[in-house]
Amino acid sequence: MNIKDQYILGIETSCDETAVAIVKNGTEIISNVVASQIESHKRFGGVVPEIASRHHVEQMTIVLEEAFTKAKMTIDDIDAVAVTEGPGLVGALLIGVNTAKALAFANSKPLIGVHHIAGHIYANQLEKEFSFPLLALVVSGGHTELILMKDHGSFEIIGETRDDAAGEAYDKVARTLQLPYPGGPFIDKLAQEGKETIDFPRAWLEQDSYDFSFSGLKSAVINKLHNAEQRNEVLEKEDIAASFQASVIDVLVTKTLKAAIAYDVKQVIVAGGVAANKGLRKELEAKFVASPIELLIPPLYLCTDNAAMIAAAGTVAYNQGHRAAWDLNANPSLSLEKYSLRTKYEN
Amino acid sequence: MNILAIDTSNETMGVAVLKEGQLAGEYITKVKKNHSVRLLPAIDQIMRETEVNPKDLDKIVVAKGPGSYTGVRIGLSTAKTMAWTLNIPIVAVSSLEVVAYQSAYLNKQVCPFFDARRGLVYTGLYQSNDKGNVTLLWDEINISFEKWLERLAEEGKPTVFLSQDVDIHKGLIEEYMGDLAIIPESMYHLPRPSLLALAGAGKQPDSLHTLTPNYLRLVEAEAKWLEKQEKSKDD
Ligand SMILES: [Zn+2]
């Protein structure tokens, strides 16, 4: 007997991308549509939540239709509807959640709520099968976390940022350097051209801690720039970027490697928008090439927010029996560990 | 003609099902609770009880605001998605018009409004005639209620005031309008989703993808940005 193929529809609207995707068996992208709002938010130098919500409601059915057209499928071919329920901007999340509920209800399909970070991690499953235990380094505008997975759908946070997320530090430094929004890619680019001439601090914290802290580094960079300005000293932007990035990467890579060895993991996967950073990729590859641990970094289009990753994580939750009810709500501060327990024990 | 009507645009949440043109069920609450959590369970319940399946629906009617930005979007994303996936027409009706329908057949000038904080309201002026029609007289606007009442007082006509927020502004209305103000009991103020369905039944369908909320107000960041653009043009 053939095992029937599974098709899960994913919907993601947690920040400034309206995204819908259809994924087969949790691993194969059938269609993956992302409508980005970056151009609209650029003029404000950051995401304006109310404007993000307005764009989502304008884009949602268009993106939905495109995802089905590209897949040459109809809703009848879909086994379940998965949606990001949190964390994220509440007004933005609500568009996806209510769209998913209406779609599932109108067609009598099961509904699955997905944690956004679980989605980022499962983006890797679209490239390569997981082997456990594995360690995930999640780095984005809102997150810097080390997550241990002993099995599918199980997430244990072993380290997290105590203040700013890495991506947040990138954006703030970029603003100080008067780079356009979003600043991360520009710093990465400048860093490739500059040299590490300034020894910025590294926040190692306690010896046995896998936590991170980037606010001290951010302040050090801003102070350095202000002091130079007062003394009419010219600092090369490229060198500032290279020195700042070297500090961030040094801490991220060192702690990831240390945790990977301590927990004896088979794979290390990198997830989130900052995973697109070239400097970070290069350094991780250099560090892990000689180790028996397999390093997985998804291609760029799977690092940034998309719905294929939500469908991939949703497939796991679906097969573990998780179902959301019609009262599913957006949860802007949904905890990953609570989500992990729920997937395992509820229903 | 089976119609599902949805209104989550303000504190009053309403869902109605019309079966073959007749009102079969109506759900309405005025409580400070989350529309996102309660809307679909309400739709589910009312459709079960009236024995209308989603596939039996011929039209969706939705209140498009003004009102709570988030509330309007909850209703609109639900309604748009259902209309899209069921491939049926969608009709969006102004939330103020729905309130004005509470005074149909009254043959009076009607001022529906929603409180918009800091002395502002969303409002418009409607005329209800004795044939049940409700037509727009003065365009809907986000305005200082005092300014609006000043204009109405100048006009000098008896006016029915309808609003779920009427209690906050009753004193002000009476101050400006005196005996010209007609303010009924609280039950008359809540927009009924069955009347939303009625208002929508006679309207042309909207274009699904381009249907957007009736915000009546720019986002603050955008307003400031536009102002800056204007200024730099003048310089
Ligand atoms: Zn993300």
From TrEMBL, chain A:
Binds 1 Fe(2+) ion per subunit. Substrate binds at V138, V139, S140, G141, G142, D171, G184, D188, N277. Its EC number is 2.3.1.234. It catalyses: L-threonylcarbamoyladenylate + adenosine(37) in tRNA = N(6)-L-threonylcarbamoyladenosine(37) in tRNA + AMP + H(+). Fe cation binds at H116, H120, D305. It holds the Pfam family TsaD. It is found in: Cytoplasm. Residues 28-311 form the Gcp-like domain. GO terms for molecular function: tRNA N(6)-L-threonylcarbamoyladenine synthase activity. Its main location: cytoplasm. It is an enzyme of class 2 (transferase). Gene3D superfamilies: 3.30.420.40. Belongs to the KAE1 / TsaD family. Required for the formation of a threonylcarbamoyl group on adenosine at position 37 (t(6)A37) in tRNAs that read codons beginning with adenine. Is involved in the transfer of the threonylcarbamoyl moiety of threonylcarbamoyl-AMP (TC-AMP) to the N6 group of A37, together with TsaE and TsaB. TsaD likely plays a direct catalytic role in this reaction. This is tRNA N6-adenosine threonylcarbamoyltransferase. It comes from Aquibacillus rhizosphaerae. The gene is tsaD.
Automatic annotation (TrEMBL), chain B:
SUPFAM superfamilies: Actin-like ATPase domain (SSF53067). GO terms for molecular function: tRNA N(6)-L-threonylcarbamoyladenine synthase activity. Residues 31-224 form the Gcp-like domain. It comes from the Bacteria. Gene3D superfamilies: 3.30.420.40. Its EC number is 2.3.1.234. It holds the Pfam family TsaD. The keyword Transferase applies. NCBIfam families: T6A_YeaZ (TIGR03725). PANTHER family: TRNA N6-ADENOSINE THREONYLCARBAMOYLTRANSFERASE (PTHR11735), TRNA THREONYLCARBAMOYLADENOSINE BIOSYNTHESIS PROTEIN TSAB (PTHR11735:SF11). This is tRNA (Adenosine(37)-N6)-threonylcarbamoyltransferase complex dimerization subunit type 1 TsaB. It comes from Aquibacillus rhizosphaerae. The lineage of its organism: Bacteria, Bacillati, Bacillota, Bacilli, Bacillales.
